Amino acid sequence: MKAVTWLAATTMSLAALTSTAFANTLEGWSTDVEAALALAKKEKKAVLVEFTGSDWCPPCIIMRKNVFSKKEFVEKASKDYVLVEVDLPKADKALAARNQIVAEKYKIDGFPTVVLLNGEGKEFSRFYASEYPEMDKFLAHIDKKLESKNLD
Questions:
Q1: How many CB atoms lie within 10 A of CB 99?
Q2: What confidence score (pLDDT) does residue 150 get?
Q3: Could you give the CA distance from residue 60 to residue 33 in angstroms, rounded to a whole number?
Q4: How far apart, in whole angstroms, are the C-alpha atoms of residue 108 and residue 138?
Q5: What pTM was computed for the model?
Q6: Which of these, 87, 89, 88, 84, lies nearest to 116 by C-alpha position?
Q7: Residue 64 half-sphere exposure toward CB, CA atoms < 13 A
């Protein structure tokens, strides 16, 4: 009986963890690339698009928890970037289908991928977010990419 109780408790815990991983849009993030591009053009910013599998991709879940959901990250990154999350969750087939079109447009071949765009929608960098799993390293990397873009 203890095994059944333990199994039930574990299953419920995992369900709660995974559902919160993709259940909501992060504060300060958009989910619409086209709207973000229009805003970026108006505000003279770049666009940071993060492609994620929020409920099935372990590096994506870690990045969301350790970097993208942090208020400090959103505040600092939003100074220069309009932030967009494009999620392809397994649990929400309709959302995944809509966002698959966007992922194909940007030729995404792995997760979590970050694509940096200028206000005109022209890509100036892409990388796997998990290469920079700490907020300070991630911010330094996107600052460097923006700086080198502005030198072109």
A1: 22
A2: 73
A3: 19
A4: 19
A5: 0.83
A6: 84
A7: 29
> Omega of the bond prior to 59 within 30 degrees of 0, cis?
no
Closest to 78 in 3D by CA, of 120, 129, 43, 111:
43
Residue 32 pLDDT > 80: yes
Amino acid, single-letter form, for residue 15: A
CA angle 46, 111, 109 (to 5 degrees): 90
Residue whose entry in the numeric block shows the structure tokens 């959103």: 74
- Taking the C-alpha atoms of residue 80 and residue 63, their distance in angstroms, rounded to an integer, is 20
User: Distance between CA 88 and CA 108 in Å, rounded?
Assistant: 11
What b-and-e string marks burial along 67-94, b requiring 16 or more CB atoms within 10 Å of the CB? bbbbeebbebbeebbbbbbbbbbeebee
Question: pLDDT band at residue 65, thresholds of 50, 70 and 90?
Answer: very high
